[in-house]
Queue: 3 jobs
Job 1
Amino acid sequence: MYDTIVIGAGLSGMLAAIGRAERGEKVLVLAKGHGATHWSTGCIDLLADVDDPLAGIAQLAIQRPHHPYALAGPAMIEQGIARVRTIGEAADYPFAGNLNRNLLLPTALGALRPTAFAPATMIAGDARQLRDGRPTLIAGFAELRDFFPPLIAANLRAQGIAAEAAQLALPPTQRQHDFSSVTLARLCEQPAFRANLGEQLAAHVRKGGYARIGLPAILGLRHATAVVRDLQNRAGALIFEIPTLPVSVAGMRLYQILEDELLRLGGRIQLGGFVQRAEHIGDTLVAVFSEAAAREQRHTARHWVLATGGILGGGVRATPEGYLYETALALPLQTPDGRAGWFAPRFLDEHGHPVFQSGVRVDQRLRPLDAAGRLVYENVQVVGGALAGYDPIREGCLEGAAIATGWAAGQA
Amino acid sequence: MDHIELSLTQSLDHCIKCNICTSACPVAAVTDAFPGPKYVGPQAQRFRHAAQPSPDASVDYCSGCRVCNQVCPTGVRIAELNARARAQIVAERGMPLRNRIIARSGLVGRLSSGPHAPLVNFTLNFAPARWMIERVMGIHRHAPLPKASTYTFRRWFKRHKPATNGRRPQVVYFHGCSTNYYEPHVGKAAIVVLEHLGFEVIVPPQRCCGLPLLSNGDFPAAQSHHEYNVAQLLPYARAGIPIVGTSTSCTLTLKEEAPELLGLHGDDIHAVAAGTYDIFEFLRNLYEQGRLRTDFRPIERELPYHPPCQLRAHRIGRPVLDVLGLVPGLRLRESRAECCGIAGTYGIKREKYQIAMDVGKSLFDFVRASGQDLALCDSETCRWQISGATGVATRHPIELLAEAYGLAV
């Protein structure tokens, strides 16, 4: 019997679990597998399309009182982010940024993406610095798929940034093939590999006079800050990482520091535990059952946090027949009226598609409600992507809303 | 079409190519010989067809640790895809003599154990003999091989007199090959603990669970073993008598591996699967029902514990931590290493030995850094691997539980 069981090991679930473990509760995180963190940039997006995210959130809370930000409240946003930053500092993986001004960081396509906080390993890529007229080099390895320096540099130049591109020669290694982002990250933690990389970068700097170098976010798995520091010294230029396509090494690092923290606090994590049904007495959830070999495993707790994500994270599933359901507890969902209402007519509609706002409707304390507004479970809180009434990716608030609601649910 | 077959075809669509499995795979992390679960699993599967030859032999380098299944965010059963693909290759090309032998752990155990065990053990510790075995058989000369026992567990059990008699609830014990031939002390510990908890323990006839055959791709032989065991265990399962095992890979095979990989879906197969428990899973259930005795002696120790892949594949959490956590003074430090590398018979093969040692490195470092002279692990081949690599004695947690109850083994 746990005090709290959190279902889902993404950002919101881990924050809720850490908050509860910190209060001395016995906590279990039960998750189907790795998820959203490993797909994401490793940055903390609060709100896109604004310069000042905190002011934007305040306005949004007035206009949309059911938005997760409005439910969590500004204090939870600030405290949750502060907690993530403390965890990062302690792990020598600090986050830099500001609640009141978005950074603009290059993507793997060379677009500029607003985000509020980024790991220190990415921070020198902020467009305001890149626009100072001094040349920037975008470099990568031909062996790394889906990262094309010439494309990135060309798109940055189109946005007024003096960027050039180069392919680096892969330093000698015992590996012969398949250089995924994770393979390269492991190699970067080997001194000889890094020394070779540093020499190549220094040669480019001598030739092109670059002030900064953008590299794919593969600069180490567990010691990224030290790897970047070392490469900067060797290259004689500032270095910034650009998030790659999944698997995202920067996202894995974010998950790793949160997992370390939760385990340090005495929490437990069970991956491969797909929650598929619930047992309740009245409006109290008593147990959940996770899929296991030969029979289900029954888990009991006093308090529950549902952090399984939305359509992307797998917490909300859609059937081909046009039915949406919540996978773990079969909670009622707030969805568009009928299958015809799922999508806007245009694929790239600027308002997004209504179906992605599907999720669980909750009360002020994040407890699930049914269509009539009645409380479903008094001892369950819903956080992150599973919540209704917002489109986290479209709004650029995926991490912010996850942290704010996760932290709120962690505060008992 | 059974649900593995269904997932064999459907997972091609369920797989969203996110590469989470490949980034978590402990084998792909250390060798180029294995390109990773995504490639040999859902991707290569598109090129596998019953009427055509297997496109790629690298699937043989899958150790079957199932880390990929555990981390997959969309629920693709990658390890099962790989196991079936390997079996298809074996069916097409035949099985090397070495694999035929090491996959028959019951036979090997029967030949090794007994009064002549010291001679067997001497030979297997004798460097020139191991060199020969490596040359002839392809078993790496440094691979950790278990010590054969001078007596079998079954022999001990026949003479064993329970401390109390009379009507008690019954439980069936599945000992597996390693307990019978190499580590009878594990079985003895299980028996005394179960009896201490008020059970009458039954040990029916049994064969190897068939896992080594499954992981070496000999499915027909594995099926005959499984059907034999099901026939022996079925009466108990039907009577509601739990079947409990100390070898976490045997219990997993009875519960899931054999039925799923072999596509066996009869009621009898399911009844035995549903009646089988890993021993700490069983003990944890007792505790949750308030039926576990907690008259423990304190053990003031902090010990490293490795939850093996085969235990994690049960998807039941960490029952050892839950139960041994009740012993006053005892603190277990859980290893976070993905795998010890050995994966049953994988790491003893000449061409895979170094891969297995590289995979297990972080676990070995963890065990050595603990500074303790004892580590715990639920799986026999993992225990031998950890002991072999670190020199730290590695025991089954049930042995420590017996000690906590103050029971002589």
Job 2
Amino acid sequence: MPEGDRGYRVGVDIGGTFTDIVVLDEKSGDLSLYKTPSTPRDFWFGVEAGIRKVSDSMDRVSMIVHGTTVGLNAFLMRRGEKAGLITTRGFRDIYDIGRHNRESMYDLRYRKPEPLVPREHRLEVTERLDARGNVVTPLDEDEVRACVRKFKAEGVRSIAVCLIHSYANAAHEDRIGEILAEEYPEATVSLSHDVAREWREYERTSTVAINAYIRPIVDRYLSNMETQLERQGYMHRLFICQSSGGVSSVEVTKLSPVSTLMSGPAGGAVGTAQVSGLEKIPRAIGFDMGGTSTDVCVSIDGNVLIRTEYKIERHPLLVPMVDVQSIGAGGGSIAWVDSVGALNVGPQSAGAEPGPVCYDKGGTEVTTTDANLVLGRLNPDYFLGGEMAVRPDLSAKRLDEKVAGPLKLDRTAAAAGILRVVNTKMAYAVRAVTVERGLSPREFALVAFGGAGPMHACDVAAELEIPTVLVPVAPGQFSALGMLYSDIRHDFAWTFLTKTREVDRATLDERFDSLAKRAGEVLEQEDVPREKRRFVRSADMRYVGQEWSVNVPFGEEAGDTDWQANLESRFHELHKRNYGHSAPEEPTEIVNLRLTAVGLVVNPRLRELARGGAGPEAQALKGTRKVYFPSLGWNERTPIYERERLLAGNKLAGPAVVEEPGSTTVVPPGWTATVSAYGNMLIRKNG
Amino acid sequence: MGRVDPVTLEVIRNGLVAASDEMRSNLMRTAYNPIIYEVLDFSVGLFDRDCRMVAQAAGLPIFLGNLGIAVGQVVKDVGLADMRPGDVYLINDPYLTGNHVNDVTAISPIFCGPEVVGFTAARAHWLDLGGKDPGGSTDSTDVFQEGIRLRSVRLFREDRLDRSVYRILHDNVRYPESHMGDLRAQVAACRTGENRVVELASRLGRDVVVEGMAELIAQGETLARQAIGRIPDGVYSADTYLDNDGVGKDPVRIRVTVTVDKDRMLFDLGGSSPAVQGPINCGFPATICGCRIAFKCLTSPHQPANEGHFAPLEVVAPEGSLFNATYPASTFLYMMSLNMLIEAVLKALSPALPDRIPAGHYGEMGGFMIFGVNPGTGRPYIHQEPEGGGWGAGAGFDGENVMIFLADGDTHNCPAEIIENRFPLRVERYALREGSGGAGRYRGGLGHYRDYRILGHDAQTTCIMDRSVFRPWGVFRGHDGEHSVVVINEALPGARRLMKATGHRLKAGDVVSVRTGGGGGYGDPLERDPEAVRLDVKRDYVTIEEARRVYGVVVDPGLLTVDPVATAELRDQLKKG
């Protein structure tokens, strides 16, 4: 558990192409950023090289936080372990039947998500509980042993168990776990109530099956990493990013790797909340525009919105994640003219290979990046800080051929048109994310990061009438930076269906206490001191008869005789915000109890910038170039600034471009950027 | 190229789609009635000033493409000259606008300055309109038993609610609080759409938006014509039957003749049954909707549609027939016929498009319910949901197991764990129904078993199963799938098999097994890859005996391996015999 002032804190975010490493000196607040090619076979070399740049010795590193996509990739590539499933008799096909819906309604060849465990490895045992958890039929233990024999014969070594109503009573699942441990100690076992103690058998089965599917792979990867770190002299605990935006120790992660699947966007979301808090912005939309997609999240009063379930490639997961919506538009999105002469951008992407035309790696499809380059918004000599050569001439040629020609537009109009279409799409998508949650985008600031975010942010904000854009420090490595601000976090849920007015407080407290006890044990294991522990209770509630529920903070007031009324009034209020109406006279019910256990990590502070004048420093200006802006046309002498050389208080009036190795910020005419004390750029619409 | 530049046109396209999506999320968020936000029984859309749909966000496919007819009817009834900004009109007439009286549509004109530039509409399913039974009847024989009809009734005049109309509605439906709440949500959705279009027009110019709408429709039409061009010209027809209309006992004939002529299509429903006594009749607008679903599956399944996408389709149905039922025919269960109609169109075109059209699916409307009085609470309950079933196999793929029927879409089943928390029932099995998929080179998907035990009380069940006469069909020598059936207390004395039943009595401890049909097979089973048959055996989809008898594949019962020599011999023999 880091104290927060002694050494280096390191964030390592391994992406498909690049590994981002952020090293923060806890004492000085100095930040060092590294980007190295990902070395999938022995990624440690990249990490080590980064850390070596700031410290000769690993013993000065106080905390390493790691975001990994190993589990996600095993799932996406379907390269997981051969997994088996044990269910209640009569229910092995739940995993195939699913919720029987068809998302693509007119598709005669629609396929449901294919189960990760084929039918021959889905076995049933005789046992049954009722909805209250009472035993209707006892567990037939001999049948469990028969399952073991079958799994052994089939070479199945990772086993998921999901029994009907196990959220209400875990005894049968636990007993199966014991028998499997005795009879088949070399297998790993995932019990559904350990991974997600929530009702709805298909969703819970899917969650525990994915866990079993990726667990051996994640386990091997993390064990290997720990060994290497130890060999290098790292003496502390390794923390792993979770989809919820929190971090957990390696030990905990190994048991439930399913909770890391969507940790990719979590770092950026936590960073959005942190940086908007630092700059005193109460409501922020995170806008992370990368190569193939743009991730959008919402932060209110320093808290990222979390959802308690989601789907990945249509496979449901009952684990919390930061509420991120992914839009299929990014720097690599392909512009194309269809058979009726309409201009489309995306959803196909040129990705990193072959990438945009300008990469000269065989790409022939014009992308958003090519349009930015042709319009002078991107600097051909400064890709990745000048480490990558690009060919604007190739972009121009393909643009003429594929877009301008067919649409009978000139090259500039075609390129500007591509950007307008992609910005319109993104603006509507951001709008949908807010209005679907009962929020209005105008009340938010846009926090822009990712390689392409700061280049498009002002145009997208203008579409949405958002007056403020914030470009944080290190927008190109913002996910890795955000990880350093993550608290240790564990989420526990327990389905407990009861009418709010028919349950007594002691019963609920008993359940919350039992969750807290379990949570405390985990924090203890992670050496979180008692004074740093926080337990946050909440309840999923709804009107009796409704399907969807709303997560409501649970009052901690001891001896509150009006707790039911208070809880209900908080529910009505949230229901009104989310759905536009509430029905205070209607009875309510509780569906799930939730407990979030937090181990507070001392937030490191970034070093403040030296203060400069209001006008930008002369040394920051690195030149001018011709850049196209829709409202001005070609602007011959657009000033180009080097971000690193800007000082606090500097104001840059648009049109202007700010460059740094990982990203480019475009300040359009009518907008002014101000550099804050912490080096973040706040870009505001004039007037 | 049109008069609006291609970039602005994309801005308009995205703007209209986003506006209809926002109407959708607005309606879903603010609706009271779970059938709207859970079963998605609603539809919203934007229309140009000629009542042509320019963007639509549908909950269910069944609402695709007949909202515009409702808008047109209102304009015809009221007259543009008499419309004012802020007006809202209601219409639910099944013969003029589809689909049954429960589908209530709110329609508003969109004004930019003094001129109407378009319309916005929000349709939602109301559980009750004051018919003879709460929620609707499976045996109604005229519209008066189904509820009140509204035709272009003005609810708001220049943003002012007409209280007389409101009181008529309020006092003539069974759940007024919920329906008046939904009505407010529908009006709010219309307002949202209106505001977004006005905003777009103020940014881009009114004429640009009006012109843009027309161009988007023209583009849709071109796309659809290009897609029809990929279907071989010809006249194709198919016949099929429903077991009965729910009231009488006779099979009900459905016939469709499809003409593909270069870049246009005609669906002629002449030769189908006359309108029937039971509630499975379709008003002509409902029929158009069903035809458009089939047409969309064939032409542009993945694109958002506008009116232009349907311009090359013509639909003909004789007046007074099942598919052009007239006042006062009952229509509550129109979906039974419509589902079969959609499949009949696909069946007709199957020989022309062997690579694209799969075999028949279980095709049930999935009507099944259990109701009674919960002994724990003393309160009445009803458990009701559509059941999924097996889908047809196609060129290169086996049919999908247990999925919701064609005319329905993103509808979810209810988990056993939720059913058992709510109702005095125990789900004893929810599993694939082995052997239900039709055999074929590609095998039909499997239906399901869902077995309910009635706990501690007597209850009743109502079910509407069909297709025992014309089972889910196989194509190109593929076999038919099994049809759906409800079995009560199998293997016990007094066991019953039900197809259609209303309020069939059940005793405590009875087990009701809902067994849904499988999909049809595609191609000759003797040509199925033996490895696929082996896997089917390993997965218990087919037995070793069936593998041998139907597929001609000899699988070793112990090792579960294929004997290639014996298989080749057996297949030769079977082909000859």
Job 3
Amino acid sequence: MKKIALILGLAGMNLVVFAAPQNFDFKDPKGVNNVVFKTDAPLESINGTATGISGSTAFDPAAPGSIKGKIVVEAASLEVPNPMMKQHLQSDKWLDIAKHPQITFEVLSTDNVKTTGNVTTGDITGNLMLHGVTKKITVPVKMTYLKDRLKDRFPKLDGDLLVLRSTFTVKRSDFGINKGNFEDKVSDEIELNLSLAGQSLH
Amino acid sequence: MRTKLRVAALVIALVVVAFWFFGGPNMGFTKTSVAHIEKDPVTEIETPRYEKRFVPGVDFLAAGLGLAAVLAAGSFLFRKKLLEKS
């Protein structure tokens, strides 16, 4: 009888463990994680990429809408195809990376969650901190949970992958980035395209 | 000297326009690196990777044509050689 109780107890503990959210680390060793930004102004169209991404999320495959966490982008990792443009972008007139070295997004809540198979879509509301200004925004997100697929990328590791994708637009004027200036070359609206993969070890 | 400067201006203008045209033609500013996309087979994430390549832009075109214009204008500072009458 004691054995049965012990087995049932352990089984119950396992259920609790499996129901708990998994922690996904977004510092990808292969460096595929990226944020692409696009500005389309009358005189110039600029595309750039940031790859210095870290952060973590707590994600429960049984309740994807309960996702919580924070993504961090190193502002110095922003790349554009012209060195002078990069210098300007990092200067105190634009992103001022010496004062504001990180861009962060912290998840507060999720709405309109729909799950089909291993893919969940929803609208995530969170705090975006850019150029030292924090603003609450809501962005559409697609989350793809890849169970036991970590070993396909790293054969020596067992675990799961979580891929997050989102495309949304922010106004640089909302974040005090050279507000009202050079809008013929750098548009006020900046499109951001996030493609991130996080890993959770078993 | 007049003729030499004008020929030099013409050659520079043609070379600059040809270099810009066959290098793109890029309507933006000059690029020193170009992104190509790599796709991760598992996550299917597409990542832009930058490789060093010089792609002349409209600033390069303007600077080259400006130099040609300066040379052509400079040619007018030299007097035409008068033919000696025999």
